[in-house]
Amino acid sequence: MTDSFTGYLVDAKAGTIRSVEIDRNDILKSIYAHIGCTCIDAVRMDEHHAAYCDDNGLVDGLECFTQLADFPPPLAGNLLVTGVNEEGDSVSPTHSIDVIAGGFLISRAVFDPAFEHIDRPGLIGTRVAGFDIRIQQDRPKIIRSEV
Questions:
Q1: pTM of the model
Q2: How far apart are CA 122 and CA 127, in angstroms?
Q3: What range(s) does the DUF3846 domain occupy (predicted)?
Q4: Fewer CB near the terminus (10 Å): N or C of the chain?
C-alpha cells in the first residue's frame, strides 16, 4: 500500500477540479491543507464518496459557492472529494473525475454594466449608469494532470 491516495479538489474561485495526492498517514492534515481551513465538515455524496468542506465557509462574505446534486445547502470554499470504503475510511474515489465534476455546480455573481447613452450639446457618448447582477452557474472545468 502506498503512502498516499488520490482525491479531487474543487477550487470554487477558479472554477476547476483536479486530482491531488492525500497523505494516508495524516489524512486530516492533508484535507486541511488542500481546502485551506482548520475546521471541516463532510457531506456524503453517495455510498462510496464524500466531499469535505470548510465548516465555517458560509460565515464570511462569499465570492462564489458550490452546490452538489441532491444536496440543497450551498457549500463554501474549496471542496475535497474522496472515496469511502466499507469501514468508512477515506480512499481514492471510485468514480472518474468527469463523473464527480458533473455532480457540482459553481455559482458566482456576475455584474453586467448597464450603459446610458448621452446626447447633449457638446457631449455624445455612453457611460456606465449602474450594473445588472445575475448568477452564473457552471460545472467545474477539469484540469487533467498526472497524479
A1: 0.86
A2: 15
A3: 7-94
A4: N
pLDDT tens for each residue of 83-129: 999 999 999 999 999 999 999 999 999 999 999 999 888 888 999 99
**Contact (CB, 8 A) for 79 and 103:** no
Q: Which of 31, 27, 60, 43 is nearest to 103 (CA)?
A: 43
SS3 content of the chain, % helix, strand, coil (to 5): 10, 55, 35
- b/e map 110-131, b = 16+ CB within 10 Å: eeeeeeeeeeeeeeeeeeeeee
- Ordered by start, the domain boundaries in the chain are 4-143
Coil, helix or strand at residue 34: helix
Q: What is the pLDDT of residue 134?
A: 96
Q: For 4-63, what is each residue's pLDDT tens digit?
A: 999 999 999 999 999 999 999 999 999 999 999 989 999 999 999 999 999 988 887 888
**Chain position carrying cell 470504503:** 85
> What are the DSSP calls for 96-125, one per residue?
-HHHHHTTEEEEEEEEEEEEEEEEETTEEE
26 dihedral zone (left: phi>0; alpha: psi -120 to 50; beta): beta
